[in-house]
Design goal:
Chain lengths: 102, 102, 102
């Protein structure tokens, strides 16, 4: 069977900004995503607790499978997009069966 | 240290079909998995909300590490297996220390 | 834009040992992580249910992006570190925009 190489874009971002991030990647042509809520994290801008009372800083992990050129534009533009708040973005290679879905 | 290349199989599928999907990959010889519950998603077949009142369309993310030949058969057969409902399947490369476990 | 290759380290481990695992990877120089709670799994040491009454055996998935040499030392040392209990560790390739953060 012929399979298709795509890129997986992963974004870890505060829950309160998840919809903004989804709208943002959709504007590049991303047609689907998976969102994992209630994740916690720590990074270069400090610890963020998912069990924080206010939940203001709870994170989500957004996963999107898309074409390489779209993924590269998202990664490149993420530097400016997320300049002022905590978010991490990374790409990896995946292989799918139905290329027309991604 | 010698490490071992394996494939990661990821399946996003409705929660109500998770057990079917686990039984299905086990039938190929997959010996372990990780399941992330309560994920939400949107794709070519429309939005699926994890906070839906009925939870009928809540998704899970299943992750399994296995040998390449098994992963390829799962990816290939997934087209027919998931023909009639929303599921996405993709493969990627991983490296493990203890090859006998996967 | 110049991007940077890093390794993603993923660790699936019992929730009660998550902090130990985080302290352990931090000791190698890992500077950030994402933790997904409440995951379930089954593997070569048997099934572990996230909805277990005691929650003793509920798992978490820890994701860390780091430099290759750190990731390789963690993978290698994980064999001894997790010799006596259920944990799985695997590496994969990722690409990031801001190398100084990982």
């Amino acid at each position: 069977m012929e399979t298709h190489r795509r890129k997986k874009v992963e974004i870890v971002i505060e829950s309160v900004r998840a919809q903004d991030a989804l709208d943002w990647i959709t504007s590049y042509g991303v047609t689907g995503h998976t969102l994992i809520p209630h994740v916690t994290g720590a990074g270069h801008q400090g610890r963020q607790a998912g069990d924080d009372l206010t939940r203001l800083f709870e994170n989500v992990l957004i996963i999107a499978i898309t074409r390489e050129e779209i993924a590269r534009r998202i990664l490149e533009d993420s530097v400016q997009m997320f300049e002022n708040y905590t978010a991490i973005v990374y790409l990896s290679d995946v292989e799918v069966a139905r290329g027309e879905h991604f």
